[in-house]
Design goal:
Shape: flat
Strand order of the largest sheet: 1-2
Number of helices: 2
Helix content: 25-40%
Length: 74
């Protein structure tokens, strides 16, 4: 999957203290919620978003094949 050099800001809770800190994740990496971090610039580019969707579909297809063959996820 293609990623740019932009960072995305997330506020994450520190323990169970109701305190938060700001962290930055590079576009294209996994965010704190297990999803892909996508910056606004990339979200607004149809070619990039199509590439991301194609990548996700390929990963899902690979994982489905591995599961049917008795293997775990990649």
């Amino acid at each position: 999957m293609r990623s740019c050099k932009n960072d995305i800001s997330y506020m994450v809770e520190i323990g169970r203290t109701m305190r938060y800190k700001e962290i930055f994740i590079r576009c294209g990496n996994t965010d704190p919620y297990g999803e892909s971090a996508i910056c606004e610039e990339c979200k607004n580019d149809p070619k990039i978003m199509q590439s991301i969707q194609n990548h996700k579909a390929n990963v899902e297809a690979d994982n489905a094949w591995n599961k049917s063959a008795g293997f775990g996820e990649l």
